[in-house]
Each structure stands twice: as structure tokens, then as C-alpha cells.
Amino acid sequence: MTAPSTIDIVTAGGRRGGRRIPASVSFRRQLIPWLFLVPGLVLAIVFKFVPMFDGIRMSFLKVQPFLGDEFVGWDNYATVLGDKRFIESIGNTVTIAVFQTVGAVVVAFLLALLMEGSARWLRWTRTAVFLPVVTALAIIGEVWRILLFPSEAGFANRVIGFFGIPPQDFLSDPNQAIWWVVVVGIWTAAPYNMIILLAGLVGIDRTLYEASAMDGVSTWQRLRHIVIPSMRSSFAVVLTLAAIRALRVFTEVYVLTGGGPAGSTEVWMTRTFSLGFDQYKLGVASAASVILLVVTLVLTIGVQWITRRKGNN
Amino acid sequence: MSTTTESLSTKRLTTRQGRRRNAKVVEGRFDSAMGWTPGFNATNIVRVILVILALLIFAVPFLIILSSAFDGAASSMAVKLWPSEPSLENLREAERLGVFGYLLNSFVIVGGGLLLQIVIAVLSSYALARHRFRGLGIVMALFLLTMMLPEEIIAIPLAQTIGDVAGTGLNLRGTPFGVILPVAVWGFSIFVMTEFMRDLPPEIEEAARLDGLGELRMLWSIILPMCKPVLGVVTIFGFMMIWDQYLLPLIAANSPDDYTLTVALRVLRAVPGSGSGVILFGALLALIPSLIIYLLMQKSLIRGIAAGATKG
Predict the structure, then answer these.
(1) Domain of life here (chain A) (predicted)?
(2) Helix (H, G, I), strand (E, B) or coil at B86
(3) Do residues A131 and B62 make contact, with C-beta atoms less than 8 angstroms apart?
């Protein structure tokens, strides 16, 4: 990429020699990092930024292959926000995001409390419990779809039958499908959160436990007044990351239910996907994506801003 | 970015200190938040029962995959923890349906994508961490922005880009590059690497410079060998990120033949007469590479997550 000799001049002259750096040398020194950045920047521009601007442009167009695109102003946005199914899908997305995020953090905290420790059997269990994290979402979706098969002989129905609960339709029942999507989401995300929370637990100062024991504090009070306050930052990280990620949930829903039954699990991205790739309404689908992008950006920057301000105080 | 960097490094530090403390002391009632005590007592029995319950909840789906993959009688209605008719019937059926072709697609994509992703992370972070230049802040901001542009959000225009790269008429649809190139730049791996490289001591580098080492040699033989721990983190997270891709292979494919194995599981479902056994055999095949990587690189994975890593 660069001839070694030029760099020798740069470093020998610039750093140690104390001589004045000739303009051409300092230009080269400015150039070198850019040469290392070129591959990454080119790919980022072509596959991230160009599509982003294309998406924004298309969101103002009525995209018609062979006929020529037509500028329609804010029409696509009006269509998205006026589409009843879209509004419902945004509602579903928020439901899934909220319950899945909170559920996964609660379950993760219980798991972390349960499995904190350095004993070997605990380490083995943690390795096993952690499996969902390394498993591709599509696999998780397929296996849970089969486990939750809505017949009396389905695996989940046999398990609940053991406890005397009548067979359920699970993902085929419009009234409960979304909650099973949430359950599978919690199952997937909890082990990951558990690791972050375990790191938080391990970081708590042990002398606090000893001191509190002298004061005769119960386990519950210890959790309430020492553990949870000490882990506030871990919780914040886990919650915000998960909530932002959950807004663009796609794979799990697409595999588990495909948005059905009767649109009861339709989310932002599955709706956008079917608008764009099944109905070829590229302009409207782009508008939906741009709204999602803006929401994501606002949330991410908002969270950063809040954490930064807290960090300064 | 600087505050994130600080919080990450302090967090890593406390974790490490905590571990050391744990290693020294025999597990006692001040070593866990719940005050678990070892030995045969009531709370410990409750704990073991709860742990077994957790183990069942998180491990049973995997046992089901394993057992059904080799169960000739597995159907959606009857998946079992133990195969009722152990056979290799599902393997033969899966082979007939082209599952190994999908697996090959997955390998090509994950191999090429991961290699390119790591190369780009190394080159970019070397420039960002070990050089000072005008525009550094802007480049950082651009890479940060790529993290907020996941495939889902730009799916529709990205599908067009893959069919016609930046107006050059180059068509990547149906080729592995349609997936490999879009995953190559990943803000996460660039930032993790940059952060690590920034903390390397400058003395070795300066000495090497005095010896007349060029930039590429410097990166390859001085900096990279010191980056082994972070290369592990970047490798396993990159693998998981690419293996988990779903929407991208879906929109970059010309025909179902181009699908990766994870995407193809949905195709298998639609084949008439194919039972859950075949799908779960495919799932098992798609699971094995992840398991191998996980067991080999568990430490890197935990390190990455504890350092505040994100999965997406």
C-alpha cells in the first residue's frame, strides 16, 4: 500500500529529529491513515450511506419501475401513518419491546442471582444456560414453532397437560400469539443479559455484604439496598440496548408466526417487509423505514445524552 | 465516544478485580448477592432445584433438536426428548432437499464475510487508534452511524444496491458477495479494536519506528500480535453476527438455492411431506458450527459481553 521508505522519513524526521517537517512529508503523514481507512469507508458508503440516502429519497417518491418515479411529497408518510394495519403493527412492536425487554431483564437478574459463584458445577450450568445466545434466531424460531405446535400431542401441550392445563393453540391463537413471541424473546435474551448482570454482581464490594451482615440485615434488604442500587448502571445498559434492538425485531416474528394469525403479531419490520417485497410499494415501505430510523436515532442519542449528563454530575 | 470508552475500561477492571477476589477466598456467604452457602442445607437444596429447573428450560429445546434430528418418526405433533425410531432417515431426506448446499452457502458467506470484516476492523482501527489526523472525529462518527443502520432499516434500498452497486451496473444478487460486502463494515468490531489498540504502550512502536519499520510491517508484526485477546472477541462476535443474518441473505438471493442454511429452514418447512425431523436436522447442522466456536472461544465471548458488547 505504502512504500516503507516514505514512512521512515516521516517518523525519523517528524518525531525524533526535532527538525522542521517539510510540507510534503507532513502531507504524507496525514495521508497514511486515510489509506488504511479507504476499504472500510468505501464499503460503508456503498452499503450503508448510499442506501440510507436512497431510502430517504424513495420515501418521497412514488416508485414505478419503467414508468419513472414521481415526486409525491409527504404522501407516503401520510399513507404509513394512516394505515390501520401499520398503526397496529407499531402497537405490537411496542408491546413486544416493552414486555420482552422488562421480562428478559427480570429473568436475567433472577438467573444471575441464582448462578453467581465460582463453583465448577455453576460454571457448567452457566455454559449450558448460555446456549440460546450463540444460536441463530432462525433456529430458535423454528424449534419453538415446533415445540409450541397447537395440537394435543405437541410438546408444550404435553408439558402443560402434565399439570392439568387444557391444550392451547399458542401461536395459532390471535389472542395469545404475541405473548408467546414475547416468551420466546425472553428465553433468547435473558442468558445474554445474565452475563452482563453477573459482571455487575461480581463487581459489588464484598465488604458491604459483611458490614450489612453485622447490622443483621436480611437477604431481601440486602438485595433491595445494596445489590440493586450498585447495579443501576448494568440495568441501564441492558434495558436501553434491548429496547432499541427490540424495535426492529424481525427474524423471530417472521419465523414464528410470519405476522399472523390475523395480523396479531405483525410488527414494524414484518409490515415494512411485506409492503416492500411482497407488494412492491417501495416508496411507502421506505417511508416506514425512515420513521424507524429516526425513532432509533432519537432514542439512541437521547440515551447517550442522558448517560453522559449523569456521568458528568 | 470517549465516555463510553472510559466506562467500558473501568467496568472491565472491576470485573477482573472481582474475579480475583473470588478466586482467593473459598466460597462463603459474603461471596454472592444472595449469600449462598455451600454444603448440605435447606437453601442450597432449593438452589440446586432451581438451577436444574433453569437448566431444563434453557437446554430442553436443544435436546429436542438433537433427538428429533435422528428420529425417523419425528413430526410436529410428536417431538420427543428421546428418538422413538432412531435412524438416519432425516439425514438422507435432508441431503435430497439440498441441505448440504445451503450449508456450503453459509460457510462461504461466514468465511468470506468474517475475514473481510476482521481485515477492515484491523486496518481502520490501526488508523484510528495509532495515528492523529484531521477528520478523525468525523470518521469515528461515520462508523458509529453505521451501527444505527442495521440491515433491517435500510433493507429496501439495500436490496436495490445489491442488484446494482452504486449505479455501476454491477449485480451482486445471487452471489455470496451480496451478503459478504454489506456485513464487512461493522461498527462494533471497529470500535472494540480501536479501543484496545489505543491502550497499547507507545514505546514498542516508537522503538520499531527507529529501526525503520514500515507502516504495514508495523501493523502486522508489532501491533497485531499484541491484539490477540481482542481478535478473539472480534472473531466470535463477527461469526455470530454473520451466522445470524436472516433478512440480508433473503433479499440478496436470486433463487432459494442461494439461501444460507438458517434462511433455508423456512424452505424445508414448505416442502410437502417433510416432517419436523428434517427441519430439526437442518437446525442441528446450523447449530454445530456455532457450538464449536462457542466452546472454543467462550472466554472471548464472555469478555466481549462483560465489556458492554451488543449483539446486533
Answers:
(1) Bacteria
(2) strand
(3) yes
Question: Global pTM?
Answer: 0.85
Q: Name every residue whose Cβ is closer than 8 Å to that of residue B49 and which is 6 or more positions away in sequence.
A: none
Q: Inspect the interface and report whether the beta carbons of A33 and B22 lie closer than 8 Å.
A: no
**CA–CA separation, A283 vs A300, rounded Å?**
25
> Which residue of chain B comes nearest to A290, CA vs CA?
B153
**A289, B150: Cβ pair inside 8 Å?**
no
> SS3 of B212, please?
coil
Query: C-alpha angle A115/A200/A106, rounded to 5°?
Result: 60
Grid cell for residue A136? 441463530
Torsion over CA: A176, A180, A183, A189 (sign): negative
Residue A22 C-alpha, separation from nearest chain B C-alpha, in angstroms: 17
Enumerate residues 46 to 105 of chain A having a beta carbon within 8 A of any beta carbon in chain B.
46-52, 54-55, 58
The three three-digit cell numbers of residue B72, written as one number: 425417523
A29, A54, A116 member nearest B33 (Cβ): A116
Residues 6+ apart with CB under 8 A from A17: none
Q: DSSP assignment of A189-245, as one string?
A: HHHHHHHHHHHHHHTS-HHHHHHHHHTT--HHHHIIIIIHHHTHHHHHHHHHHHHHH
pLDDT truncated to tens, each residue of chain B (312 aa)?
333 333 333 344 444 444 444 444 445 667 777 777 777 778 888 888 999 999 999 999 999 999 988 887 777 667 778 887 788 888 888 888 889 999 999 999 999 999 999 999 999 999 999 888 888 999 999 998 888 888 888 998 999 899 888 778 889 999 999 999 999 999 989 999 998 998 888 888 888 888 888 888 888 888 899 999 899 999 999 999 999 999 999 999 989 899 999 999 988 887 776 678 889 999 999 999 999 999 999 888 888 887 654 433
Q: Which domains does chain B have, with CATH numbers?
A: 94-306 (1.10.3720.10)
> What is the 3-state secondary structure of A115-146?
HCCCCHHHHHHHHHHCHHHHCCHHHHHHHHHH
CA angle A277, A280, A281 (to 5 degrees): 115
- The answer to whether A255 and A138 have CB atoms below 8 angstroms apart is yes
Closest chain B residue to A12 measured between Cα atoms? B210
* Separation in Å, CA B82 to CA A25, A148, A168, B67: 71, 18, 24, 5
**B84 is written with which cell numbers?**
422413538
- The answer to whether B180 touches B249, Cβ cutoff 8 Å, is no
- A199 contacts B11? CB cut-off 8 A: yes
